[in-house]
Amino acid sequence: MCFNDDYWESNCLSTALSRTGEALLTLDIDLDSQYAFNWLSGLESIFPRVETLYLTGLPVRFSHDGNSADNAFPNLRKLGVTAKFDALDLERQPDGIPTLDWNMMLSIIRSSAPPHELTLTHDFGDCHIPREDIFLNPSALPFSLGELTKLTLRAGCLIAMAPLLRACPFLSTLSLFNVDLHGGMPLPDDNMITLPSLQSLNLSGSDIYNVLWHLQCPQLRHLTATSSHSLSPFDLQGIVSRSQCVLQTLDIHIPYYPWDLDKRGRSSHEEIWRNILPLLSCLETLTLRLGRGYITSILPQLTKPHAFPLLSSLIARFDENAFSNVLWPGAEATTRDDAENALERFFSACIYKADGGVLSTLDVQFGYSLYVQDQDQNDINLLRQNSRLLVQMHRWKGEGVHIRASHVKPTHGFHYSNEDLV
Length: 422
Known about the structure:
422 residues; alpha/beta; 26% helix; LRR_dom_sf; F-box domain-containing protein
């Protein structure tokens, strides 16, 4: 909502606040609004009740708040700041000062309680901000980072944000979305970013494999990397080995990279997967998002009896190309029977435990490529109801495994629906 000095808007604000009683508030302000310079200076009376604060705007908007001395948030626990830029804004940027000065932007807050959650977002569109034009000095921030447990960075340069990461000793959850190196020189090996308390790491973006090689997380328990530009097995082995961590949850999309095989050789690729298995022996939940060529080329490397002795939940997601007969150059031609057999062996290895028990939950979803059309335009389900895999799923279900198996069926236009298989 937008507030200025008009009577009716002030009255609406007073009425809304009176209805909240003494509850803590969430304040979301767009500083690029036509009333931007009135918002903070006119709301000082509610700052003590603000628990969550979101601020969005051009960096210059933050520096033009003339009453920042009154901007105290004693109960602030969650802070999100978004810096907006476009090409014209960059052209107008004065020489000699950082394009993005996080300290200047965050100084709009005079003081606050130590936040528990912090989100910093670069909303620059297609504009590129060089590493040297991003500035952040954690020791000069208007609040302490001593209680920060959750940090989210959306876009930007990892190297520029390294001082912030190192200044958060109790950080337990880190999310990096489209964060990259921005062409900056990698950190030397003896200057890694060590996050001693980090337990959960969420990654997404085209450069996450480079970003990951700069992180060391000895307490890491949960790793999520689900974007289409995800981790190769070499990257996964790197972070787990380097951190010497004990993963409990892994949610990962690993596309099939034939150029990886060409560069390193198939035997090397298979050896990496064999080396990874012991590092994942404490997994309790495993989510695999599998693409074209992966099922019969890589999945067998994970198929060993009792490789995941503590696993209770296995989730498998197959995209629309997973069973495609049209493979990338360098991939081995396979049949759907080959894929079904590989899946059955992998699932079976995960389901049956050394102590005679079984896996608690198996959740499988197939992409819409399970359907093709015959010459009369009728849908044909290529994973037949009498297929060996589905027969086995029914058997596992009778043995006590909670199974959910479905596939995505095209309906009309670009719409799809889930249809149960078991």
